[in-house]
Structure formats: structure tokens, C-alpha cells
């Protein structure tokens, strides 16, 4: 089998050894005569998978004892609602920093629940950057401050997280486990698994236990984080196979040198592509400003839309998958999550360089 | 490989040919060099899987054009909240018929949202039966009437669905697709997939489109059925692999003669076990009253708890999996969903018969 050059934004590439291991034991898990997906979520085999994934995640991500780890369903999108349902009380205000489409969606859901305030936004600058601290309005007294650590669509990323006195909530869907992290800084982190952690269908939450205990929600037992925290994410039937896959991805991540090893590799990968863009004399132009460039999603455009279309078509002919930008903004985007190999990025950089060399005239006449 | 004799209540046995097919194409889906779980939910391969599963489900379940099919996350438990959030308006009352623990949980979530009324209950009779129509209080003017079509824990099942003027809502988690069904009778049906449809992680909803359009929910875009209906269950990233597996299970179900063929087989399977119980001269005693017996979950007890423990231990030694009753009520339970083979039920019936023959004395001395 020739592996595809998969740059999809999510669901995205998974590590090949993980897929091969899961394939091998897919029908007959550990000689039981059953698939792991046929087993009770309250039996001993699945229990080992469930608690194993949690323990691995805790160790790898250095989650302190002050924080709880939850495996939920509904994707990051359900978290847009669950966060304010649990933490935005009457007469309180939640702060949002807008750095892209996903932050906007998170804000919109919070607006349905209670009072909100935009603390900073880079929208006027076409979401090319992360607003610097000096541009924020005052966040004092907020119920929480919500940020999006990596902006999947625009290709920008927070490279440093702010110190703040209010609980910091981060949507880390597209860069969780891509680098070491000081979890203690956060009230709550959430991430759909389908980019860096595993298949779609499971969402990982890391939450400060003390803050959790202060949450109020009388609306729904299921939508209460405490329900899942006190049941160890087994309140109802969890997405067992997705959590099993997550566990295998975590095992693989350990072998890559953990978050420090993954960060090193991710920086090398993104450097290959940003170098191709920067050395292209304006043929490729990156969307993100230098200091806000994402190591997960590299976004760029070509001199005109016809050329962009041709570039994407030729890339597709050469076997590159998923390079089109998000349907909401167009352009090109290479998503290079943890499991995307260095070699695939090398091939893409080479392809970008050679494509540019074959189109030197057009790039200047078409302006 | 020797297949396990898997009588788990859910997650439960899947058809072996389905598992084998999924294993074969797990790493390299249709020669693409990618797993189906690595593919964008907006790309052509997954699109065929998604729309294929929906079309197959529509055909197999004879879902009329008046009804929408949704693939959501969160399990049946999230539906306990979503139903009243969408359909229980202020000044309205929702009716619930209590036939077991799951109906009680559904009711409790509705109580958080609005006014409720218990229209009938078999709780006093230890949930051994489905209340007959003559025992109901008046359901006129209700926002909807909620029932649980099969009571997974107690082992009872509705064998006929009532005609009523109010929208009928049914939790069919543990008997969906086990028999032909007149969908037109229902306002909304929901079912976690992990018993009859596939792996855990996807919940199937069938809803009357006109009723959907009357739903009101300003709380959360994600929790609004209409959000998912208008996006064809692609509003956010769906659990792609679970839906892929669901599609394969539907393909297999077609080969079993559809819902009529499955019903025939399920009745034969349950008859084997109920016969063992009935012919046991009181050694095994079934929990459900005859007319309410479930064809999906066969529940029974032994003369005393020591014997029950011994029975379960011996059964386990003989390779039978998942025969213990739900932790909330104890006893024994054989879950015999669509994918549990006739031969496995035969073996269990034989085991029950021979176990009884080896314990004739104890069964009467221990009373
Ligand atoms: C940063 C971010 N947040 C949220 C989402 C939505 O995630 P989900 O589809 O799991 O709801 C995405 C999906 O791409 C994302 O990139
Ligand atoms: C009838 C019924 N309803 C609801 C549930 C809960 O389903 P889930 O775990 O998908 O939330 C179950 C689980 O066994 C069930 O049998
Ligand atoms: Mg974005
Ligand atoms: Mg995206
Ligand atoms: Mg029950
Ligand atoms: Mg159950």
C-alpha cells in the first residue's frame, strides 16, 4: 500500500502503526473472540482501555492532580454550549477573544445563555494574528475568558498563553498535544479528537476540579460536567472504539518523545512549508502574520484564483489530499497535525517549489 | 478464532461479516491509502458512506418521506434532554409512561425543563409488564407522550404501539430495527446504536419533519434538531467511523431479509430461552409477564442468590459473556440483539437445561 499524502483539516491523518495495530486486533481483541467494540463499557477489557487512555493522557500532557480529564461526545461544538451552560451565571459576563470563525461560533452559543463581552478581536485584520495583550479590554470580574488556541481555518496560533485572574477556557481542538502545555493555567480545555488525538466521536476535556465544583446547571444532568466527572466518563455508554483509538494514539505519542518531541517535529514540518512560501518571492503568500503563524495549519494563497485552482488540481493529481482552504474563506491550507509525517511535508514543499518554477511568468502577468 | 458467546446488553455483539469487512479495509479504504477515519467528513468517500447509510436506513426501516433521519452524538441519554428542550414549551405538559429505569431517567430530565405527567406506570408491579391502555390517564393536550419501546434492564417490550392524537416519542435504543415498524405513528424515535445498529458513539433519530419545524429552542444551536436536519447531520464533525460501521450493519441486515427476517429470527431465538425458563419447573423464573416479554433481553432469576452466583460463574467458565443482570437489579439477563446468532442462543438454552438438571435438589431445599 502507498500511503496517501494526507493534509486534511480533520478528521485527519492517523499514525500508520496505530491503524495497523487496531486492524490486527479488530475482530479478535486479545484472544477474546470479540471486537473491543462488542464489549460492555463496564467490563474488565474495556475498563483497562478506558482507564489506560486516561492515565496515559494525564502523564503525557502533565495534567496536574488539580484537574480532571473527561471523555465526552458531541464534538467541540457541543462544548461551545456546555461551557456557558455550566459556568455563565445570571448577572455574570463571559469574555471572548475572537481569533477566527470557531471563536465566533463559541461566542454565539454563549450569547444564547447569558451576558458576553468581546475582550479582543483580530477580525478587522482578517484574522491574520492573535491580538496582543495591550489590545485587550479589561477582563476583571469575568465568569471566564474564552480563547481558541489554534485557528484551524485562518492558520494562526497562540504561542504564549496569558496570565489572568479569571478562569481561562481554551478550545484546543486543532493543536492539543502538539506541544508542552502548562495546564495549571487553565480553568478548562476542550478538544475534539479528530485532529491530533484520534478519530472523530470523542471530545477530551481537561477541567480544574475546584472550578467544576462551582458550576451550576439545573438544565440537564447530561450537560453537567460534574455528572461525567463523578462517573469517570462512564455515566452513559461512551464512544468505546474512539477512546480505544485515542489510547493507541497516546501510546504512539509517547514513542515520539511526548509533547516536547512532537513539538520539535511539528516545528520542523511547518518550517519546510513556511520556507517554501517565504522564498517564493510573493508567488505564495501566507495568510498569518509571522509571529502568529500556526504549526498545525499552514494557510496561503496564490497570485490569482485561476492559478490557485490549477495549483490545487495539480496537487491533487500528484496525490496530495485536503489542500483546499476551508469552504468559508477559500485559498490553500496544509494541515500538518502530529501524525502527518515529515516526509509528506517535504514532498509538499518540493511540489510547491517546482510548481512555482513552472509558473514564473503567470505569477507576475496576472496581478 | 472461536467467536465468543456474547450476550452483552450494549455495546453488544456485531455481525462477524461486518467486522471482517471493516477489518479488511481498515487501513486502506478502497485503495485510497487512507483509513475511512482519516478522511474529511466533507469529502467524496465519506459522503458516499454517510448518504449511503441514511438511504439504506430509510429503505430498510421504511421511513416515510414525512420523516427525517439524523445521526447525532451523545447517546440516548442526551436525547432524554433534547426531546423536552425542543418540544416542551412553557405552559405545556409532557406525558411519560414508565416501564423501567430508562423511562424514569427520561422523565427526570424532562422535569428539569418543564411540566410533566406520568400517564401510566408499571413500577408497582416491579416493571414486569407494559401498562395496558385501560390503565392510562388521559393524554389529551400533551406536548408529547414518551414511551420506552423495550426495557433493557427489566426485559419487557411493547408489542403494539398505541394510536394517540399527541406526538408519540419512543426511546427504541434496545429494539430498533428488530422488527417491522409503522414509523408514521411516531413524532420522534431515538436509539443509541450500540445494541442493534453498530458501535457506540452514534445515535439515530427519526423525526416527523412537520413536528420538527414547530420545535422551539433558543438555548443552543447544537441542541436544536433543526440544525442537524438542515445540515444533513453534517453541522459539525460526525462520528464518521461509527456511521461507516452502521452502514455495514445495515447492509448485513438487508441480507437477513430486512426487519421481517430479523423479527422472525429474533422470535426464534427468544423462544429457545423462554422455553428453557418455562420448562424448568420454577428453577428459572422469568421477570417479565408473558404478554410483555422482550425478544431482545431475556431476564430471569434462580431460586436463590447463591445459586445465581454459581450459575453465572459456571456460565462464564463455559464461555458465555454478559449474562449478569443490570447492576441496579441483579439477576440474569441474556441480551439477544439482531447480531447474536441462533446457535449461541441454542448453546445457552442447552447450558441452562443441563445446569438445572445438575441442581435439582438445591433448587428446592434452598427456598
Ligand atoms: C478550533 C476548532 N474548534 C471547533 C471545531 C468544531 O469541532 P467539532 O466538529 O468537533 O464540533 C473545529 C473543527 O474543525 C475547530 O477546528
Ligand atoms: C432503553 C435505553 N435507553 C437509554 C439507554 C442509555 O443509552 P446511552 O448509553 O446511549 O446514553 C439505554 C442503555 O442501555 C437503554 O437501554
Ligand atoms: Mg479559525
Ligand atoms: Mg476545520
Ligand atoms: Mg429498563
Ligand atoms: Mg443497559
From TrEMBL, chains A, B:
<keyword id="KW-0808">Transferase</keyword>
<protein>
    <recommendedName>
        <fullName>Phosphoserine aminotransferase</fullName>
        <ecNumber>2.6.1.52</ecNumber>
    </recommendedName>
</protein>
<keyword id="KW-0032">Aminotransferase</keyword>
<feature type="binding site">
    <location>
        <position position="171"/>
    </location>
    <ligand>
        <name>pyridoxal 5'-phosphate</name>
    </ligand>
</feature>
<dbReference type="InterPro" id="IPR015424">
    <property type="entry name" value="PyrdxlP-dep_Trfase"/>
</dbReference>
<keyword id="KW-0663">Pyridoxal phosphate</keyword>
<comment type="pathway">
    <text>Amino-acid biosynthesis; L-serine biosynthesis; L-serine from 3-phospho-D-glycerate: step 2/3.</text>
</comment>
<feature type="binding site">
    <location>
        <position position="152"/>
    </location>
    <ligand>
        <name>pyridoxal 5'-phosphate</name>
    </ligand>
</feature>
<feature type="binding site">
    <location>
        <position position="194"/>
    </location>
    <ligand>
        <name>pyridoxal 5'-phosphate</name>
    </ligand>
</feature>
<dbReference type="InterPro" id="IPR015422">
    <property type="entry name" value="PyrdxlP-dep_Trfase_small"/>
</dbReference>
<dbReference type="InterPro" id="IPR022278">
    <property type="entry name" value="Pser_aminoTfrase"/>
</dbReference>
<keyword id="KW-0028">Amino-acid biosynthesis</keyword>
<comment type="function">
    <text>Catalyzes the reversible conversion of 3-phosphohydroxypyruvate to phosphoserine and of 3-hydroxy-2-oxo-4-phosphonooxybutanoate to phosphohydroxythreonine.</text>
</comment>
<keyword id="KW-0718">Serine biosynthesis</keyword>
<dbReference type="GO" id="GO:0004648">
    <property type="term" value="F:O-phospho-L-serine:2-oxoglutarate aminotransferase activity"/>
</dbReference>
<comment type="similarity">
    <text>Belongs to the class-V pyridoxal-phosphate-dependent aminotransferase family. SerC subfamily.</text>
</comment>
<feature type="binding site">
    <location>
        <position position="42"/>
    </location>
    <ligand>
        <name>L-glutamate</name>
    </ligand>
</feature>
<dbReference type="InterPro" id="IPR020578">
    <property type="entry name" value="Aminotrans_V_PyrdxlP_BS"/>
</dbReference>
<dbReference type="Pfam" id="PF00266">
    <property type="entry name" value="Aminotran_5"/>
</dbReference>
<feature type="binding site">
    <location>
        <position position="102"/>
    </location>
    <ligand>
        <name>pyridoxal 5'-phosphate</name>
    </ligand>
</feature>
<feature type="domain" description="Aminotransferase class V">
    <location>
        <begin position="6"/>
        <end position="345"/>
    </location>
</feature>
<comment type="subunit">
    <text>Homodimer.</text>
</comment>
<feature type="binding site">
    <location>
        <begin position="236"/>
        <end position="237"/>
    </location>
    <ligand>
        <name>pyridoxal 5'-phosphate</name>
    </ligand>
</feature>
<feature type="binding site">
    <location>
        <begin position="76"/>
        <end position="77"/>
    </location>
    <ligand>
        <name>pyridoxal 5'-phosphate</name>
    </ligand>
</feature>
<keyword id="KW-0963">Cytoplasm</keyword>
<dbReference type="InterPro" id="IPR015421">
    <property type="entry name" value="PyrdxlP-dep_Trfase_major"/>
</dbReference>
<dbReference type="InterPro" id="IPR000192">
    <property type="entry name" value="Aminotrans_V_dom"/>
</dbReference>
<feature type="modified residue" description="N6-(pyridoxal phosphate)lysine">
    <location>
        <position position="195"/>
    </location>
</feature>
